[in-house]
Write a structure and sequence with these properties.
mainly alpha
Length: 81
């Protein structure tokens, strides 16, 4: 096997490995966000409904402002940010 074929296979293997790592990290991030949204969806609709069309940061600020009134699960999400 020629040296150039060996190098090509090594580069290809590294690229495939990197793509797998990136896809796994992306899926994990999506799972985390979905869990956070589930934990706070009731609190958002109860305390921050008027900010729902203003974007994530407005909702996050509202949740922080209402921290004492949030469910325990949502409070953990807010505290972890």
């Amino acid at each position: 096997m020629s040296r150039s074929v060996q190098v090509f296979r090594s580069v290809l293997a590294c690229a495939l490995l990197l793509a797998g790592v990136v896809l796994a990290a992306r899926a994990d991030a999506q799972d985390t966000r979905a869990a956070q949204e589930r934990a706070c969806s009731h609190d958002v609709s109860r305390h921050c409904r008027r900010y729902m069309n203003e974007g994530d940061m407005a909702i996050y600020q509202c949740l922080q402002n209402n921290r004492e009134r949030l469910s325990a699960a949502c409070r953990r999400v807010i505290d972890s940010q």
